[in-house]
C-alpha cells in the first residue's frame, strides 16, 4: 500500500453522482414547483427516463439501496399498476410529446416485474414518448431470478443493455453477503440476453467485501473477462450499517482493512486492463469499441445517478418510489415509502418528496465536480468564466488542495487541477474541495477508497 494514499483513503467523501448531493435535497418540496419545471422544459431537447422498482426476492447483506423484500407477486403487481399511472401523470405534465435518448430501469430488481407487466409499462412509455433512433434502453437484472422467458421478452421489448450485480464469484464471500450465484448461472443469463438481441452487457464488481482477498477478486475478474461484458464497474463496498441496517449482518471483523481494500482495488483494475478493458473515470472499465470509451476519449463522458454514462440529456425524469430526477432547474426526489408514493399518484399528485432548485453557484460547482470525476482534470478558472463567476472564485478551493499537491496526488496551475496517476483513486477528495455544502454537512459518507 502506498503510505501517502493510506493517509487519505479513510477520509469520508460523497460519490458525486450529483452535485449538490442527495442529502442536501430539501424536504417538503412543493409539487407545483416540480410541475412548473416540467412545463418549462424545452420540448426539442431529448430527455432520459429512470424507472425504479424497489422489490427484490432476497436481501443481500451488503445492499445500500432502497429496496423491499417481496416473496409474493401481489405487491409488485400493485406497484406496476401505480407506476403506469405515474407514467401518464408525468407525461401529462410535460409541454409536449418528447423524445427519450436514454431509459434506465433500476432497483431493487426491475426484473422482479412479470414479463407481462414489464411489457405493459414499456407500451405505456412508448405510447407517451418517442425514442431517439440510437436510444439506449437499459435494465438491471439479477441472474438468480432472471427467467428464460423474461430474457426473451427483454429482447423483444427493444432493450439494448442489461446489467448484473456480479460482485464476486468466490463462494465464501457470496455466502457472507447472502448472494449465491455461481459463474455458470451468470453465464446462462448473459447468453440468454445476448441471444435475445440485447447487445450491451454490464457487470458490477465490488471490492472490500467480507472475506474477500486480492486472489479471489482477480479470479473473479478472469471469469468476468471470459463472459466479455462490454462494461465493468468496480465499486468499493461502502460499510454504513448506521444507515443500511441489513449491513449489520456483516461481521466488521471479516472486512478487509484500508490497505487491503486499496490492494484489491489496484489488483482488480490491473487485471481488467490486462484483459483488454479501458479505464473510464474513477471506477468504470469498458471495451475499447464501447460507446463509454469513445465518450471518455472525446471528453463527453457524463456522470449521473447511475454512475458514468454517455447520456447528454439535461433532463432525467425519475419515476417510481424514491427515484431521483434532474431538470435544468433543479433536482427532484420521489417519496420513498411505496404506500405514500402510491397514494399520491392515485390522487393525481406528482409524488415528489424532496427537491433542490439550482442556484447559479450550484451549476458552476456541479460542472467543475463532474469534469473532475469524468476527466480527472478540470480548468476551474475557465468553467468560472463560462458561468460569469468572480475571477478568483477557484482560489479558496484550490488552496485546500495544497496538501494533496505536495503529496504528488494532483497538479495545479491557475485554477487548473489535474489528478496524477498516483492521485487518481482519490479524485472524490479533490472534488470535495469544490463542494460548498460539505463543510456544513452532518451526512456521513463512505471512505474515499
Ligand atoms: S443488492 Fe440488488 S439484488 Fe441485492 S438486495 Fe440490494 S437491490 Fe436487491
Automatic annotation (TrEMBL):
Q: Which protein family is it in?
A: Belongs to the anaerobic coproporphyrinogen-III oxidase family.
Report which reactions are catalysed by this protein.
Answer: coproporphyrinogen III + 2 S-adenosyl-L-methionine = protoporphyrinogen IX + 2 5'-deoxyadenosine + 2 L-methionine + 2 CO2
GO molecular function per UniProt: 4 iron, 4 sulfur cluster binding; coproporphyrinogen dehydrogenase activity; coproporphyrinogen oxidase activity; metal ion binding
Q: What is its EC number?
A: 1.3.98.3
Q: Which residues bind [4Fe-4S] cluster?
A: 56, 60, 63
Q: What is the recorded name of this protein?
A: Coproporphyrinogen-III oxidase
Radical SAM core domain boundaries: 41-275
- What is the predominant subcellular site recorded for this chain? cytoplasm
Which sites bind S-adenosyl-L-methionine 2?
Answer: 62-64, 108-109, 167, 179, 204, 238
Supply the PANTHER family for this chain: COPROPORPHYRINIGEN III OXIDASE, OXYGEN-INDEPENDENT COPROPORPHYRINOGEN III OXIDASE
Q: Does the keyword Iron-sulfur apply?
A: yes
Can you name the source organism?
A: Sulfitobacter donghicola DSW-25 = KCTC 12864 = JCM 14565
Any one GO cellular component localisation term in the record: cytoplasm
Write down the Pfam families for this protein, in alphabetical order.
Radical_SAM
Q: In which pathway does it act?
A: Porphyrin-containing compound metabolism; protoporphyrin-IX biosynthesis; protoporphyrinogen-IX from coproporphyrinogen-III (AdoMet route): step 1/1
Cofactor info, note text: Binds 1 [4Fe-4S] cluster. The cluster is coordinated with 3 cysteines and an exchangeable S-adenosyl-L-methionine.
The top EC class is oxidoreductase
Amino acid at each position: 500500500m502506498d503510505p501517502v494514499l493510506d493517509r487519505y483513503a479513510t477520509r469520508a467523501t460523497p460519490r458525486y453522482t450529483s452535485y449538490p448531493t442527495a442529502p442536501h435535497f430539501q424536504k417538503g418540496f412543493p409539487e407545483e414547483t416540480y410541475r412548473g419545471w416540467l412545463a418549462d422544459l424545452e420540448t426539442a431537447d431529448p430527455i432520459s427516463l429512470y424507472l425504479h422498482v424497489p422489490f427484490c426476492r432476497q436481501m443481500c447483506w451488503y445492499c445500500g439501496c432502497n429496496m423491499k423484500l417481496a416473496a409474493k407477486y401481489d405487491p409488485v403487481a400493485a406497484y406496476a399498476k401505480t407506476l403506469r399511472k405515474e407514467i401518464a401523470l408525468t407525461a401529462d405534465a410535460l409541454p409536449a410529446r418528447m423524445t427519450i435518448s436514454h431509459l434506465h430501469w433500476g432497483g431493487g430488481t426491475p426484473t422482479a416485474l412479470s414479463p407481462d407487466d414489464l411489457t405493459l409499462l414499456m407500451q405505456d412509455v412508448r405510447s407517451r414518448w418517442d425514442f431517439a433512433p440510437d436510444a439506449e434502453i437499459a435494465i438491471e437484472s439479477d441472474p438468480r431470478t432472471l427467467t428464460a422467458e423474461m430474457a426473451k421478452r427483454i429482447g423483444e421489448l427493444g432493450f439494448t443493455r442489461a446489467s448484473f450485480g456480479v460482485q464476486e464469484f468466490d463462494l465464501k464471500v457470496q455466502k457472507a453477503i447472502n448472494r449465491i450465484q455461481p459463474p455458470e448461472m451468470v453465464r446462462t443469463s448473459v447468453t440468454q440476453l445476448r441471444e435475445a438481441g440485447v447487445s450491451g452487457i454490464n457487470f458490477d464488481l465490488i471490492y472490500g467485501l467480507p472475506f474477500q482477498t486480492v486472489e479471489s477478486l482477480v479470479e473473479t475478474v478472469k471469469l468476468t473477462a471470459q463472459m466479455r461484458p462490454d462494461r465493468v464497474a468496480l465499486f468499493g463496498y461502502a460499510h454504513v450499517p448506521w444507515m443500511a441496517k441489513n449491513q449489520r449482518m456483516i461481521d466488521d471483523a471479516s472486512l478487509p482493512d484500508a490497505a487491503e481494500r486499496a490492494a484489491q482495488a489496484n489488483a482488480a483494475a490491473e487485471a481488467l486492463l490486462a484483459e483488454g478493458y479501458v479505464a473510464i473515470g474513477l471506477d468504470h472499465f469498458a471495451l475499447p469499441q464501447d460507446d463509454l470509451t469513445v465518450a471518455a476519449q472525446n471528453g463527453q463522458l457524463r456522470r449521473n445517478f447511475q454512475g458514468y454514462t454517455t447520456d447528454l440529456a439535461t433532463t432525467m425524469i425519475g419515476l417510481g418510489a424514491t427515484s431521483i430526477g434532474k431538470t435544468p432547474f433543479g433536482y427532484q426526489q420521489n417519496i420513498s415509502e411505496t404506500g405514500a408514493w402510491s397514494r399520491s399518484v392515485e390522487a393525481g399528485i406528482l409524488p415528489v418528496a424532496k427537491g433542490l432548485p439550482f442556484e447559479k453557484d450550484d451549476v458552476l460547482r456541479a460542472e467543475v465536480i463532474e469534469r473532475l470525476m469524468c476527466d480527472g482534470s478540470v480548468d476551474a478558472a475557465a468553467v468560472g468564466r463560462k458561468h460569469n463567476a468572480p475571477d478568483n472564485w477557484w482560489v479558496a478551493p484550490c488552496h485546500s488542495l495544497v496538501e494533496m499537491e505536495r503529496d504528488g496526488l494532483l497538479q495545479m496551475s491557475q485554477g487548473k487541477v489535474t489528478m496524477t496517476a498516483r492521485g487518481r483513486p482519490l479524485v472524490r477528495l479533490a472534488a470535495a474541495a469544490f463542494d460548498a455544502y460539505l463543510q456544513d454537512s452532518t451526512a456521513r459518507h463512505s471512505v474515499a477508497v
